[in-house]
Structures are given as C-alpha cells and as structure tokens.
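Input structure tokens:
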C-alpha cells in the first residue's frame, strides 16, 4: 500500500466526510444552492492566495533542486490556472471579501505545519486539497448530470476533472510518495497521520461553510 493510501486508510472517516460531503453531490447534479457555491468560491479564492504562500514556503523547505522545481510548478498552477477559474466564475471583487473563520483556520494550520515541520510535513498538510480535489472531481464527472448544459457547476467539475489539473495532482502525489520513501519511519508516519487527519477535517469544514451559506437563504 502506498504512503498516500495508508494516510487515507488511517483517516477513512475524515476522508469520506470530505470527499462525499453533500456540497460535492450538489455540484454533481446541479442542485447546490447558488448562494452556497458563491460563498464557497469567494472564500476558496482567498484560500488559494494563502495556499500559494504555502507552496512558496515549500520552495524554501526543499532540500533538493528537484523539490524546488516541483514546488514552483505547484505555485504556478495555483496562480496561473486555478485562480483564473475563480475569476471567470465570479462577478465579485474577490480580494475585498472578508475571510471566513473556516478559511483562516485551514490555511493557518497548513502554514503552521510547514513552518514547524519539514517539506514532507508541509506536503502532507497540502495533500487533502491538491490530491483530494482531483479524486472528488473524477467521481463527480462520472455522474450522469455532471456535464449537462443545465448544470451551472459543469465548468468547475470539468476544470478539476480535466487532464491539466489531474496531472498536477498526479505529480503532487508522486512527489509525496518520493519524500515518504526517503524520510518516513513508523514513528514519523504516526505524526504525519495526525496532520493529514486534521487537514482533511478542515477541508470538510470548508464544504460545510459553503453548505450552511446556501441553507441560510432558502
């Protein structure tokens, strides 16, 4: 079993709550309240700004030049690809929106894990987002209504299920496995599982934040 699969197995309850949250199912069939998606999208834009900082930190934490290049590629994917999707899907002034508590809690946790730990700890904290979105989008894309013209979220699904993002996630996973091969011991793995569980729980909280926003206006 790969390192990432071991992480998911140990965090199976948290991973299921994150990847199968009702918010994601609403994306797949188009029933998610517009207010829920709008609130999520704006906060996710702010989230990506902070995640870009985390990828910049991973450059600093990189022990090898190859690690630095991988981190720089991840930073570019956020700044040049993912954030553009949010701008296309929103009419709001994204950077002027106050940050939600859930966004702050998650990004501060990831940055703190990176500041306190090494590159592997930071990559474990980042993994639920970058790898998890690819897994979620693949599942959603297989649903019958995911790409229907009537589904307002088909562009979001197509972006994360598409080849460019899937390749980003695959490279992130391969890099994580390479770091694990070099640095993981049984004691270290137990520490990394704790980080992965918490980051995954905070991802689920992010969906829940959007979900609640949709329910408030119903």
């Amino acid at each position: 079993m790969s390192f990432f699969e071991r992480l998911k197995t140990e965090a199976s309850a948290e991973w299921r709550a994150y990847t199968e949250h009702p918010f994601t199912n609403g994306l797949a069939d188009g029933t998610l309240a517009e207010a829920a998606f709008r609130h999520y999208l704006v906060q996710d834009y702010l989230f990506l700004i902070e995640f870009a900082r985390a990828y910049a930190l991973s450059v600093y934490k990189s022990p090898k030049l190859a690690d630095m290049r991988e981190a720089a590629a991840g930073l570019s994917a956020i700044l040049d690809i993912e954030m553009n999707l949010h701008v296309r899907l929103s009419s709001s002034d994204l950077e002027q929106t106050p940050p939600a508590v859930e966004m702050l809690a998650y990004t501060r946790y990831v940055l703190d894990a990176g500041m306190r730990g090494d590159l592997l700890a930071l990559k474990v904290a980042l993994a639920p987002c970058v790898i998890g979105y690819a897994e979620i989008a693949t599942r959603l894309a297989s649903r019958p209504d995911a790409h229907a013209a009537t589904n307002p979220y088909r562009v979001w699904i197509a972006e994360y299920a598409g080849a460019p993002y899937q390749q980003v996630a695959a490279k992130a996973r391969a890099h994580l496995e390479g770091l694990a091969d070099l640095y993981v011991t049984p004691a270290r793995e137990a520490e990394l599982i704790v980080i992965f569980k918490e980051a995954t729980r905070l991802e689920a909280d992010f969906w829940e934040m959007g979900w609640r926003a949709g329910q408030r206006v119903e």
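Residues 3-216 form a domain with the Heme Oxygenase; Chain A fold (CATH 1.20.910.10). Residues 18 and 203 are 6 Å apart (CA to CA).
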